[in-house]
Amino acid sequence: MVLQPSERYHRDWSHRRLGPWCSPTGSPAPLSCETGCGEGSWILVCRLLVPTQVSLLSMEEDIDTRKINNSFLRDHSYATEADIISTVEFNHTGELLATGDKGGRVVIFQREQESKNQVHRRGEYNVYSTFQSHEPEFDYLKSLEIEEKINKIRWLPQQNAAYFLLSTNDKTVKLWKVSERDKRPEGYNLKDEEGRLRDPATITTLRVPVLRPMDLMVEATPRRVFANAHTYHINSISVNSDYETYMSADDLRINLWNFEITNQSFNIVDIKPANMEELTEVITAAEFHPHHCNSFVYSSSKGTIRLCDMRASALCDRHSKFFEEPEDPSNRSFFSEIISSISDVKFSHSGRYIMTRDYLTVKVWDLNMENRPIETYQVHDYLRSKLCSLYENDCIFDKFECVWNGSDSVIMTGSYNNFFRMFDRNTKRDVTLEASRENSKPRAILKPRKVCVGGKRRKDEISVDSLDFSKKILHTAWHPSENIIAVAATNNLYIFQDKVN
Amino acid sequence: MFARGLKRKSAEEPEDVEGCPAGARAAPSYSLQRQSLLDMSLVKLQLCHMLVEPNLCRSVLIANTVRQIQEEMTRDGTWRVLAPQAAGRAPLDRLVSTDILCRSVREQEGECPAPDMGDGQPDLVPGPAVAPAAQALRSPQSSLWEGDGSRESRGGFQKSLDQIFETLESQASGSVEELFADVDSSYYDLDAVLTGMVGSTSSGPGSGLQAFASATTSPPSSSCRSDLGELDHAVEILVET
């Protein structure tokens, strides 16, 4: 498990520019929507279940992490509400995959190293580190609990042997350092091997402590705590491309932080009205431009996106660009505003496009065109006639995320019934897949799913009324350069890989 | 989905529905749908999670929906509150089944639900079901409501909702903003919350809920004070907690 120095960190970031992001064969793999065979079909690599016991074990002693992972891959009723995964994020190389859950824990998985003996194991992810990032708190002034649920995790680009990530709950952002230790000093003069102090009278010789190899240990330590800057609930964090600053966004404000300074932050967006009675719009997501460290976007509950330039003024209340699609009058209903609320916004890797997710669609916008998106994809339009029921059971407020693949050619988002959808922007084909225990055996090819809208239901189709709305895929992630995806379904993390033969 | 397999009771009831389209019995009218949506929204705003701060985005979206319905009803002239009568104290959960309500009006009338109440329902009296007046019960137009088997929808809403609308009416304004104008603005200025949550009206979250609950059992002529208590509670949910 010990990484060679040359593998540990990359200083050359040129490969992150526009370039041929490839699948292992060297060409972008197209999607296959039909039989599920051939190029572009997806197989389950592993399903990871991380119940509460794992974190207790790994904190007490050094344990072979693979043993933990395998022993908990079985189905157990360990899962509690605290285990519900609330965020998933690959790091910049895709070697690590971090998840945060409702219980405030962060679990990091590491990709299995390639080896000649076990080629088939490549692509599997095993537990690398587990730690408690946030604890439940109580706000005594308001008499309200502050949830420990991890809302977002964002990785910092690797600059030395250690890994750094930001994790946030509703109120506090923390910078964590995850590092490996595979040597320990031995031969102290004043302490014996167990760490007990030696009687100085018994010391007759002096020796120099030496570093000796030990079993690999992965430690997570909190390096910075950025607290007390948000009155409202933090919904997004985004690392700037300068790697020195990051932003945190809550419902009404966005703050800019320097990683080194925890007692100050700059407020760069404030949409709180002077009179709270006049509040009609909130910030729902925000992200920095991937290359231009002065630009960022934020989305709102009214379906608008604003691009801001920090060079223009200290307080970016006035946008540089304003993206909004005119409303379709034929589709107007009392729910129009609610379903137009944007739940996620993501820049493409190229920085040219932004993708937004609202309740029924995913839209791709060109930064150069503000008056409408260039592409609109229907995720589950069959729900349009069910909006009243979905409003009653609060499902209409579910916040789905969306992700780009490494080459910006495919976009993915989740739906209900543990379904998730992929849209190929080039071929205009789409596929619906399901992340569930019943339907996937390891290495088996995923069968495309279909929702029957009306009329006769064909075999293997599922009718709209049979969908399980408690099984929702809100969080997904795509490997930065390969066709490997992570899908969070309640307390399960599914990892799928594009099967290319 | 929930309400699976729910029988269409209203369609099976033989009713003499005078002057209404044949399909009206099977699916609710636009105004009934709208009213139910309004009541559902108000309930959502009032039921807040006391332990954890409720989602501000969700509250804002619901409040905007309420505002939108209210504006439309004001334009229609249907924003009219009758004096609350002792027409029964059926509990809130006897709302007309969502399955029935959420059936598209399109199915019923074969046309888009238009804001103008005039089309398709000429005999329908534009009166919110939330205010069960004895007159409304006996008027011929109300047979439509009976035809839906929705007796509950007339008399079934909690008193406090009546009082909210009564207060709205008494202030002779249709705007949500004016409604809250009386309340001390510092009460829900979140930045000033360091001084505590209690505002000038002295009703905290607990008392607001209690006023809500007690409204179901108190006589119709409740004091103005409890009205304000419930309003404060609603305001609190909207803008603060």
TrEMBL record, chain A:
- Superkingdom per UniProt: Eukaryota
Arranged from A to Z, the UniProt key words for this protein are:
Repeat, WD repeat
The Gene Ontology CC terms held by the record are:
protein phosphatase type 2A complex
Query: Which Gene3D superfamilies does its entry note?
Result: YVTN repeat-like/Quinoprotein amine dehydrogenase
Question: InterPro entries, from UniProt?
Answer: PP2A_PR55 (IPR000009), PP2A_PR55_CS (IPR018067), WD40/YVTN_repeat-like_dom_sf (IPR015943), WD40_repeat_dom_sf (IPR036322), WD40_rpt (IPR001680)
Per its record, what are the GO molecular function terms? protein phosphatase regulator activity
SUPFAM superfamilies, A to Z: WD40 repeat-like
Recorded family membership: Belongs to the phosphatase 2A regulatory subunit B family.
Q: What is this protein called?
A: Serine/threonine-protein phosphatase 2A 55 kDa regulatory subunit B
Question: What is the source species?
Answer: Neovison vison
* Upper lineage: Eukaryota, Metazoa, Chordata, Craniata, Vertebrata
Q: Which gene encodes it?
A: PPP2R2B
UniProtKB/TrEMBL annotation, chain B:
Coiled-coil spans are none
Q: Where is the SERTA domain?
A: 30-77
UniProt superkingdom: Eukaryota
Instruction: Fetch the InterPro entries from UniProt.
Output: E2F-SERTA_domain_protein, SERTA_dom
Question: Record's GO cellular component, any one?
Answer: plasma membrane
Give me the ranges of the annotated region Disordered.
Answer: 1-25, 200-227
Which residue stretches does the UniProt record annotate as biased composition, category Low complexity? 213-223
Record's Pfam families?
SERTA (PF06031)
Q: Which PANTHER family match?
A: CELL DIVISION CYCLE ASSOCIATED PROTEIN 4/SERTA DOMAIN-CONTAINING PROTEIN 2, CELL DIVISION CYCLE-ASSOCIATED PROTEIN 4
The protein depicted here goes by the name Cell division cycle associated 4
Give the organism, scientific name: Neovison vison
